[in-house]
Amino acid sequence: MARHIRAADVDAVLAYSGHELSEFVDGDWSPGYRVVQDGRRQVNVFHDGPGEQDGLDRYRLELQAAGFHVIPDQQPGGGRRRLHVTRH
Known about the structure:
Layout lengths: L6 H10 L7 E2 L2 E2 L2 E6 L5 E6 L3 H14 L3 E6 L6 E6 L2
Antiparallel strand pairs: 1-2, 3-4, 4-6, 5-6
């Protein structure tokens, strides 16, 4: 069973690796990563802007190297690609 995880822990790994955080500016998201808490045992990571799949691939590898369990996924109904991140 997955353990508790905090979005701040996932954010810290990506920020330390030098990735830019996406911010909501003038009604749109700036290019970069976005971390969203999805309950106590899961965090979702998105990439906003060009190069979505490349960004998600880089985030996945770095998060796995940091000891997180990462599953590439897509939102229901053909929505955005994302990463489901949990702790083992």
